[in-house]
Write a structure and sequence with these properties.
By secondary structure, this protein is mainly α. The protein has seven helices and two strands, in the order αββαααααα. It folds into two domains: 72 residues; 93 residues, Cytochrome Bc1 Complex, Chain D, domain 2. Strand 1 and strand 2 form a beta hairpin.
Length: 190
């Protein structure tokens, strides 16, 4: 049930999550409810009063729906989830894979790999690494990070519970993107 609420909450209409529209509708009906007596007072008629209760009811319905969706949480933070809580919830696929990849990089990678470098082994940066040649190679490396000589290095292994395959895909797409490390590499060369 909770995962269904999360997917509904992030359902996109014109690139904007549904929860935003519901919140705006709640605000619209709240303002309508508040303005209706003012409009009636100025016009001197009571024709809009009959709609006042209906608009107030719509306001309450949309506000409660918005609140329930907001409180529903994200699947990445649910107890018993197969993903570790990183402080940032994984967004459903299609919302913003680039943003999800950037968030994962900032949460999990940037402390040892600022700007695509490697603070532990400076001669093994992310940028230009053969580990970035394709997604299966990248995924295999983050699941079992070994040094070039085959020994276990200081980089932690990221199991599927720590970074799901879809999160790893978002991270990889971010790293090879214009916004990711390629852009940083070009900036450094210029």
């Amino acid at each position: 049930m909770l995962t269904a609420l999360v997917s509904i909450k992030y359902y996109q209409i014109f690139g904007i999550p549904l929860i935003i529209y519901i919140g705006l509708l709640a605000l619209f009906f709240l303002l309508g409810t508040a303005l209706m007596p003012i409009i009636n007072k100025k016009k001197g008629s009571r024709s809009l009063i009959q709609w006042h209760h209906r608009i107030a009811a719509l306001c309450i319905i949309f506000a409660l729906t918005h609140g329930l969706l907001g409180l529903s949480g994200d699947t990445g933070t649910m107890p018993g989830s197969d993903r570790e809580n990183t402080g940032r919830a994984e967004r459903p696929k299609g919302l913003s894979d680039m943003l999800a990849g950037e968030n994962i990089f900032e949460d999990r990678c940037s402390s040892c790999h600022p700007d695509g470098k490697n603070i532990v082994y400076s001669d093994l940066p992310i940028m230009g690494s053969r580990k970035m040649s394709d997604f299966p190679t990248f995924l295999d490396f983050i699941r079992n990070p070994l040094l070039p000589d085959g020994s276990k290095g200081p980089m932690p292994s990221f199991s599927r519970k720590k970074i799901s395959d879809s999160q790893a895909r978002s991270l990889y797409e971010y790293l090879i993107s214009e916004k990711g490390l390629k852009a940083r590499e070009r900036e450094r060369k210029s």
